[in-house]
Automatic annotation (TrEMBL):
Belongs to the 4-hydroxybenzoyl-CoA thioesterase family. It is an enzyme of class 3 (hydrolase). The gene is ybgC. This is Acyl-CoA thioester hydrolase YbgC. CDD domains: 4HBT.
Length: 129
């Protein structure tokens, strides 16, 4: 599990100062990327190997709005590891309150063929559940 802080900037909000719904996806993406980096994997290295993790499915529940200048915390953890997929549970917190909950399924794909491939063993070992 990893915590990733995010500050809400003006560019993240709509005219009312509330975070625009699509920007939560950016916060979640950054947190997943940092989660991989913390585990020793860089997106650049994966790209050099013609591999990428792409979002296949996302279920998101917007519970409460975030606003301009809020300091948020994105919690990311792996809850399932398949042959070619990783399922993440992610939540966005504002202080002690969960404001967004998401389950994100990412598939490992070969970028040359744009088809799912088995997650490399060195990555699988890190995420053994």
């Amino acid at each position: 599990m990893m915590n990733f802080p995010v500050r809400v900037y003006y560019e993240d909000t709509d005219a009312g100062g509330v975070v625009y719904h699509a920007n939560y996806l950016h916060f979640l993406e950054r947190a997943r990327t940092e989660f991989l980096r913390q585990q020793g994997f860089s997106q650049q290295q994966l790209l050099k190997e013609s591999l990428a993790f792409v979002v296949k499915k996302m279920d998101i529940d917007y519970k409460s709005p975030a606003r301009l200048d809020d300091l948020l915390n994105v919690i990311t953890e792996v809850i399932e590891l398949g042959k070619a997929k990783i399922v993440f549970s992610q939540s966005i917190w504002q202080e002690e309150r969960c404001i967004t909950q998401a389950t994100v399924v990412v598939a490992c794909v070969n970028l040359n063929q744009m088809k799912p491939v088995a997650i490399p063993e060195n990555i699988r070992q890190i995420f053994k559940i």
